[in-house]
Amino acid sequence: MSRRTWHEYFSSTSETDIESFTKENKVSTYRTEHFQAGKTTTYRCTEYRKCPLCLFQLKSKESNNKFTVFKSESHNHDQRNDTSRLKSPIRDTVRQMSDKGMIQTQIRKAVSVTHPSLTVDTKIKNIVQYSRLKTLKSIISIDDLQIWCNQYLNCPSPDKLHDVFVPYYEAIDINHIFICITTRQLLSACKYSSTLAIDCTYKITYNELPLLVFGTSDLNRHFHPLGLCLISTDE
């Protein structure tokens, strides 16, 4: 392998200027060495894993409270490594579709039109889930939610079979929520069986919190819901 050639590229007395300069050149720290004269930091392209032909590097040398940056090679992103991941442009498109509210089925159909050779259902699902996790909205007002639950804590009178009430709840923040909602009429189905069936659904609330539905079944295998719970996690 040929020896690298370095050329002076930039200098400053401020370390902040060096940090800004390296960000502008799209490099990340590769190696830091400490010498008697000062610190030497080598940077390499942030895309070096994806683009094996990109040999671009910067080297910052500190001496007498002055920073001098040297440059070697240039950015070269013409060739990308083969990877099992979706290519960046496709991932960006999937994220944009997800941010606009499209569901996974719609996104898969759209991607299959623009890229018919791709079979990437699982990868699209992972990108959508990760994107929505990063943009998970916080509850607008946890106090309002607590006030609502407190208003419906008491069990209604026997003649109000279909009035909703909250027998139990915890509402601390977006990551700590458990709210059970039911009615007298729903709870009356307990007499059909002692077996409890539980299922969970997602993506139907503003915050994409899991909604747990629980109930029982009779001898004819008819399902009778007992209530539902809004929860922060299904684990």
In short:
This protein has helices spanning 15-24, 88-99, 104-114, 121-134, 142-151, 184-187; strands at residues 7-12, 27-34, 39-45, 57-63, 66-72, 165-173, 176-182, 197-201, 211-217, 223-231. By secondary structure, it is an alpha+beta fold. Strand 2 and strand 3 form a beta hairpin.
Overview of this structure, please?
The chain has helices at residues 15-24, 88-99, 104-114, 121-134, 142-151, 184-187, and strands at 7-12, 27-34, 39-45, 57-63, 66-72, 165-173, 176-182, 197-201, 211-217, 223-231. The protein is α+β, with helices and mostly antiparallel strands and 235 residues long. The chain is elongated. It starts with 6 loop residues before the first strand and ends with a strand. The model has no long low-confidence stretch (mean pLDDT 84).
